[in-house]
Each structure stands twice: as C-alpha cells, then as structure tokens.
Design goal:
- It is a single chain.
- With 71 residues, this protein is of the alpha+beta class.
- The chain has one helix at 23-32, and strands at residues 37-41, 55-61, 64-70.
- The chain is 14% helix and 27% strand.
- The protein has a three-stranded mixed β-sheet, with helices on one face.
- The longest helix has 10 residues, at 23-32.
- The protein is globular, with a radius of gyration of 13 Å.
Length: 71
C-alpha cells in the first residue's frame, strides 16, 4: 500500500506582518521566511479557493500590500 504523503511545513509567520510593506520588499521577505509560493494580486482579482500549503497571497494596490493571507 502506498504511503500517505506528508504535506510540507508552512512557515510560522503571520500574514499581517506584510500589510503596509512595498510589494517587492514583502515578496523578498516572504521568500526569506520560507514561503515556497508568493502571489501578488491586484484588488478584486478572482482567485480559486483551494488552499495550498506554503503559499502566501498579497493584495497589492499602488505598490503596497493592502491585505495578505495564507493559502
């Protein structure tokens, strides 16, 4: 029988710490902290709701992170 895969660990990091940062700095910081996928989106972008371990999402307006969430 095949083993059940172990999902990767997620950084112990709060998305709230990125709000207000400029988008480039936030992306570099997120990668340095271990996020495998960093996704920057303009406000109102339609995204799928599937949760991806290791992904952080940034809503970016005027070059600044306005909102951040995991998955």
């Amino acid at each position: 029988m095949a083993q059940i895969p172990t999902p990767p660990t997620e950084p112990n990091d709060s998305p709230d710490t990125y709000v207000g940062l400029d988008a480039d700095s936030a992306e570099r910081l997120a990668r340095d902290r271990g996020w495998s996928t960093v996704r920057s989106l303009p406000p109102g972008t339609v995204v799928t709701m599937e949760y991806r371990v290791g992904r952080i999402n940034f809503e970016v307006s005027d070059g600044r992170v306005r909102r951040a969430w995991k998955g």
